[in-house]
Amino acid sequence: MPPYELTPSAEDDLKDIARYTLKQWGKNQSLQYAGLLERRFLEIADRSSFSRSFSERYPQIQVTRCEHHYIFYIHPEGKRPCIIAVLHERMNKVAKLENRLD
After folding, report:
1. Using alpha carbons only, how large is the chain's radius of gyration in Å?
2. Which residues pair with residue 88 across a beta bridge?
3. Residue 13, domain CATH
4. How is the chain classified by DSSP, letter by letter?
C-alpha cells in the first residue's frame, strides 16, 4: 500500500497524462514522467515537498508542482495524504477542481 491515496478523479488524471505522454513522446518518456509524479507523491507523503495552501476558501487543500502539472492534495495530521487532482499548468484549475471539492 502506498503512503498516499488517490481519489478516482486523480487516478483518471494520471491515466490521461500517461495516454497523452505516450502518444506525444513515446513509452520511455511516459515512464519517466510517471516516475517523476510518483516521486513527488512520496515527497508529499513524507512532507518534504514544497507546497502552499490552494486558497483562503479551501485552506486544507495544498498544491505543489511537478514539471508541467499541479498536484492538489489534503494531508491531515497523522494520516496518509489524499491526492485529489493532477492538472496541467494550462488547464483552468479552479473549474476542474470545483466539482471535486464540494
Report:
1. 13
2. 69
3. 3.30.2310.20
4. --SSEE-HHHHHHHHHHHHHHHHHH-HHHHHHHHHHHHHHHHHHHTT-S--EE--SS-TTEEEEEETTEEEEEE--TTS--EEEEEEETTS-HHHHHHHHH-
Beta bridge partners of 72: 63, 85
Q: In the numeric block, which cell numbers belong to residue 10? A: 486523480
CA distance 41 to 2: 9
Give the tens place of pLDDT for each residue, 11-52: 999 999 999 999 999 999 999 999 999 999 999 999 999 899
Give the per-residue pLDDT at 102: 64
CB 19, CB 11: distance < 8 Å: no
Q: What's the pTM value of the predicted model, to 2 decimals? A: 0.92
Q: For residue 81, which of 50, 38, 42 has the smallest C-alpha distance?
A: 42
For the chain, the domain total comes to 1
27-37 pLDDT tens trace: 999 999 999 99
Range of the domain at 94: 5-99
